[in-house]
């Protein structure tokens, strides 16, 4: 199993606050890797660094062997990383379909001149982009609301739309930030099925979640952060037995240094 | 996304052109043709600013500066250096684009109020330069005798011809704007308006797109300015002052941000209003300069009662009224989820 994403001694300091401290871990190609940890452990900070929202203070991140930690987000997207957001960040001024069409930005053509003049097959490209976008909506089950305003969707479906939009970039690595939070039990079940389908299509998944049962059910490997430090990495079974992890989740002092 | 959206945009443009062609049959007064020509110039300005404000969500309180730079460049080149207007106008647009790029790169790093302040400052600086660089701009006395435009032997020397020139240009630019909005570029602009983070993670180069739309909307303003210079044949700094920048923002806001045709409606409304207040001010001196107060009042009222703007707001009011008039459909006719695919 080859390594897709590698983080080495990554730290992030905001002012005086150490959000992530010297964390190293790997995400293997084709697997579902989860990043877990108590509140404030630095999980979302980690995702933000991987997707280029801000750079790490020190350390490095590599995608398929190439460093990406100094790149801006749109370049990282072009390298093959897509993400969803903990606080859903849809383009609420656009329809469901248009949201996914933005996801096709890197995979479609057209500039200011061709747009203004409709030369260079602009209308044909537009139709193709719309059709491509629709297949991603079908994949997550939102094709029936393609022309609704995205802001009008119920919360659970907004999460699905974010996933469709991210998939439309045709990523090699998909980052899911708390994709299950706020979902009903039934919606969570559908989400799990979707995540498995996404992996099957060849996309590697790195997810952050609070829901321990969900994470342990679906992940191939788990990385645990606590107070910005990595305290464990391994299969769900290994992590569950880890004393430092148990201590971190129960809020006790670590019993030993077995992690 | 309808497959035939281009034809429908084109259709509207054709309808607009026909309306323009017929107007002089009904409007005989030179005064009103002049007002209408000015309305077309305001439409160009508002449509350009709307691309920046309504679609990309970036405020500019200094847009009159680009209007002025476009106008002054062509005015100075034609009157002092004898350059043909057909060369001077593109030169004015090009110079404006370069200045907009240089201003936009640092300014568009700012957000919200800070961007508004920076562009306001820029507008003020340009205004002061226009007033005080007498050697080049002739200061407050303005540039006179700017040549009329001519295509071969067709000289745009009367109000009907000027009306056609300005409105055909305005409709072409409306069409261009509508096309841009409904494209990959337009979607990227709307996306960064809604969430810069999300747009960037979709691969949209946010700062590049922001600068691009800033320069584009400055180019619209410069074209409007150079048109103004050659249609009115006289310009002075007061035409490009701060209050004009505010007027443009009001046009975009009451037109309803993020609607190409709305911006045109906004331009028409404000042009008529300003004209009416001006004539009112002439008749009753108390109302002189009343337009400043009126703009403020309109902004507040629109924001309070029609925050989506005049066009969208009125449309929604009508739709609500129609819905209330029509009896509700029987439950079995109404599917649970209305699919519009």
What do you see in this structure?
With 259 residues, chain A is of the alpha/beta class. Chain A has 2 domains: 147 residues, P-loop containing nucleotide triphosphate hydrolases (Rossmann fold), CATH 3.40.50; 84 residues, 3-Layer(aba) Sandwich (Rossmann fold), CATH 3.40.50.300. In chain A, the strands form 2 sheets. Chain A has a 6-stranded mixed beta sheet, sandwiched between helices. A 4-stranded antiparallel beta sheet of chain A has the order 2-1-4-5, covered by helices on one side. Chain B has a domain of 210 residues. Chain B has a two-stranded antiparallel ribbon with strand order 1-2. In chain B, β1 and β2 form a beta hairpin. The termini of chain B are close together. At the A-B interface, α2, α3, α4 and α5 of A face α7, α8, α9 and α10 of B.
Give the key terms.
heterodimer, A: about 260 residues, alpha/beta, Rossmann fold, 6-stranded mixed beta sheet, 4-stranded antiparallel beta sheet, 10 helices, 10 strands, about 40% helix, disordered C terminus, B: about 350 residues, mainly alpha, two-stranded antiparallel sheet, 14 helices, about 75% helix, globular
